[in-house]
Write a structure and sequence with these properties.
Length: 247
């Protein structure tokens, strides 16, 4: 699994930077009621998306949480109100937030019950009428029909932790109702074979690829051998779902 403390400084530059964050923020805000006054972004990372959300709607007070100290340190430079916290056990009282967002988080949680626990926490801290907005099927967003996808396919883990079906089931079991969705482009995140090969060796894909033994080295070699290894393939297209607490 990626070391997010070590990765924090280079994270934004290697993942689409402001254009990608802007696209995510606009999509999130499109699902958050204009009446909302507080939003908690769990797994906020460097705070770049939080910052763009806050800039996009100045009347909305945006708070962030992340369990990586390196990420929290950067996020505090952008939005200030950021807590070092596990998304499964948030240091917030129940029914205190008008909105909760989780962007590019749930796909990383492969442990038994982890995604359900995050959804449960989001439901717990939402006020009646509040919404939970989250990315789903994140890794599928990178499937753009490229040669990289074809090479990765035999190594794919069987069931993503953030499938729309499972996240919807968890949300409904905690009293939330599905009320909408949106999509946005992962600007600047189109993969090249060479970058994908390095990511495999670093363990970036550990959450959704099965790579026992020397499989990572073998897959990395297969990717590097693809034609035009430094040519960027198409950008991914991400998906958001929104769930509302009735009331």
């Amino acid at each position: 699994m990626l070391d997010y403390n070590a990765e924090a400084a280079a994270y934004d530059a290697t993942r689409g930077g402001v254009p990608r964050a802007d696209a995510a923020a606009r999509a999130v805000l499109g699902l958050v009621p204009t009446s909302a006054r507080t939003l908690v972004d769990v797994g906020c990372g460097t705070g770049l998306v939080c910052e763009r959300i806050a800039l996009g709607r100045p009347a909305l007070r945006v708070f962030g949480t992340d369990m990586s100290y390196g990420m929290v340190r950067l996020a505090r430079q952008r939005i200030g109100a950021v807590a070092l916290a596990d998304a499964r056990r948030l240091p917030l009282a129940g029914a205190t937030a008008d909105a909760v967002s989780a962007v590019w988080l749930l796909h990383l949680l492969r442990g038994d019950g982890e995604v359900r626990a995050v959804v449960a926490e989001a439901a717990r801290i939402l006020r009646p009428g509040g919404v939970f907005v989250t990315t789903v099927d994140k890794d599928a967003g990178h499937h753009v029909g490229s040669d990289i996808d074809a090479v990765l396919a035999p190594y794919s883990a069987p069931q993503p932790s953030d499938s729309a079906e499972s996240v919807t089931a968890y949300a409904e079991s905690h009293g939330l109702e599905r009320v909408g969705g949106a999509g946005f482009a992962g600007h600047g995140q189109g993969r090249t074979p060479r970058r994908a090969a390095r990511s495999v060796l670093r363990g970036d894909y550990a959450a959704h690829l099965s790579l026992p033994g020397t499989a990572a080295e073998r897959l990395s070699a297969e990717l590097t051998a693809l034609p035009d290894p430094d040519r960027q393939r198409p950008d991914p297209a991400y998906r958001l779902l929104a769930f509302r607490r009735p009331g």
